[in-house]
Write a structure and sequence with these properties.
It contains four helices and two strands; from the N terminus they run βαβααα. It is mostly helical and about 90 residues long. The protein folds into two domains: about 45 residues, no CATH class; about 30 residues. The longest helix has 17 residues.
Length: about 90
């Protein structure tokens, strides 16, 4: 399943997604005749929550710029920041 925004609304992209056996959740732009009747709005709203989570992660400099050399150290920092975000303030 591919969830994207209106900027990725191209018929060619939709055809490629369907050719690979996946389902696309991409709202159509206003200038198209076809409507958004087949759009799964609940799943599209969930995409917004995921994008906000990544935006909050990037508020921490160590995550945004990746100062660590080793992958395991960077993963530890990301895990720690996720814990900070998950804990109630």
């Amino acid at each position: 399943m591919i969830v994207a925004d209106k900027g990725d609304d191209r018929e060619r992209i939709r055809e490629q997604i369907e050719a690979q056996g996946a389902r696309s959740v991409i709202p159509r732009t206003r200038n198209l005749i076809k409507g958004n009747a087949d759009l799964d709005r609940g799943l599209y709203r969930y995409r917004h929550l995921v994008e906000n989570a990544f935006a909050r992660l990037k508020h921490y400099r160590a995550v945004a710029f990746r100062y660590d050399k080793l992958k395991r150290n960077y993963e530890s920092v990301v895990t720690m920041v996720c814990g900070f975000l998950w804990l109630p303030m």
